[in-house]
């Protein structure tokens, strides 16, 4: 959690506490003028506690679990039921406390909107009718008050939710523009292109039959990166085609290392939408640090599977060389960019496990595309 986020949470908490305190003193002062300190304190504490309860339950549980999950009718029923129950319990508790104090008939009949100066035995109305009328009025008043609090909490939460989504979308757009260039630099860096072009030159010089296929591989890969990745997602099959070209160009310099690379595509739904250029940095990292040229000890395993319900599992593991090799900083930048994109585009919809030992480095990435 960043310092700015912690500071914002603290400021929001302080403002909420101050707002509750101000509301408490206003409520206490309102009832204190008519009923005295004891009743005003009890009334303010009980009334505000019930309102806070409704507010917190609504924004913490009901909204995320029901309304934001598009269960609108169930949300309305549960919310209205909660308001009725709280209003009923509040009135019973309040009545019990008042009765325990054995208030006079005159005090029981008073209500904040009645005239506290009302006197005169000859003008006293029918007490039974007035009590029934008062209870009905009080029940309706409490129900309306708690309903207003429930609706206000809904409006507040939905407003903050919309603003949060707007900020995330804006952040995603800004990060996408920046990350696209970083990804292009990290995934097709000059060193990689130099090796590919040098190998193509060698093949053409030897008049190898592989030359046209290699040129086509490089052309397809560059076309995908420059033209097909302009959208937020691409079909999974296009990403796999890109990875096949990507891997093919990496092993171009030595056919013997093919036996040290195990590739498995288990695709049940090739049209799943996936963020483009997402998996290649992990594969490039494996080629850089596995010492794949060592035909005896070097190896790489790559697998990608997709299910019909939108789940994608991507696994890459590679050998760790016995001797420390020089690290290419560009690979580290690529992996960091991928992590940022995952957090922005698949927030709460992905998991990544990294295992790093002296003999093996592996990563397992699970993504829910739905």
TrEMBL record:
Pfam families: His_kinase. Keywords: Membrane, Transmembrane, Transmembrane helix. This is Signal transduction histidine kinase internal region domain-containing protein. InterPro entries: Bact_2-comp_sensor_kinase, HATPase_C_sf, Sig_transdc_His_kin_internal. One of its GO terms (cellular component) is membrane. Residues 180-250 form the Signal transduction histidine kinase internal region domain. GO terms for molecular function: phosphorelay sensor kinase activity. The keyword Membrane applies. The chain crosses the membrane at residues 13-32, 44-67, 73-90, 136-156. The keyword Membrane applies. It comes from Flammeovirga pectinis.
């Amino acid at each position: 959690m960043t310092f700015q986020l912690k500071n914002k949470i603290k400021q929001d908490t302080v403002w909420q506490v101050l707002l509750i305190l101000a509301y408490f003193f206003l409520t206490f002062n309102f009832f204190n003028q008519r009923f005295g300190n004891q009743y005003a304190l009890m009334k303010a504490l009980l009334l505000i506690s019930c309102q806070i309860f409704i507010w917190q339950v609504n924004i913490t549980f009901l909204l995320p679990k029901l309304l934001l999950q598009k269960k609108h009718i169930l949300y309305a029923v549960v919310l209205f039921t909660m308001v009725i129950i709280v209003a009923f319990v509040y009135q019973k508790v309040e009545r019990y406390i008042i009765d325990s104090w054995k208030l006079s008939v005159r005090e029981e009949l008073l209500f904040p909107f009645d005239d506290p100066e009302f006197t005169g035995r000859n003008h006293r109305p029918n007490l039974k009718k007035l009590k029934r009328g008062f209870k009905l009025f009080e029940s309706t008043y409490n129900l309306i008050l708690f309903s207003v609090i429930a609706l206000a909490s809904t409006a507040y939460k939905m407003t903050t939710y919309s603003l949060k989504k707007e900020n995330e979308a804006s952040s995603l757009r800004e990060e996408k523009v920046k990350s696209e260039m970083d990804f292009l630099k990290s995934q097709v860096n000059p060193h990689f292109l130099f090796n590919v072009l040098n190998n193509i030159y060698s093949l053409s010089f030897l008049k190898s039959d592989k030359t046209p296929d290699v040129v086509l591989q490089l052309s397809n890969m560059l076309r995908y990166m420059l033209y097909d990745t302009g959208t937020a997602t691409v079909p999974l099959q296009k990403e796999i085609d890109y990875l096949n070209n990507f891997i093919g160009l990496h092993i171009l310099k030595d056919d013997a290392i093919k036996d040290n690379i195990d590739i498995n595509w288990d695709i049940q739904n090739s049209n799943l939408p996936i963020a483009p250029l997402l998996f290649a940095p992990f594969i490039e990292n494996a080629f850089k640090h596995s010492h794949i040229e060592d035909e005896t000890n070097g190896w790489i395993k790559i697998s990608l599977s997709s299910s019909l319900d939108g789940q994608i599992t991507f696994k890459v593991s590679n050998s760790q060389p016995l001797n420390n090799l020089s690290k290419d900083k560009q690979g580290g930048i690529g992996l960091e960019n991928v992590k940022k994109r995952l957090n922005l585009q698949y927030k709460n919809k992905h998991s990544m496990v990294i295992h790093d030992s002296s003999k093996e480095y592996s990563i397992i990435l699970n993504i829910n595309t739905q």
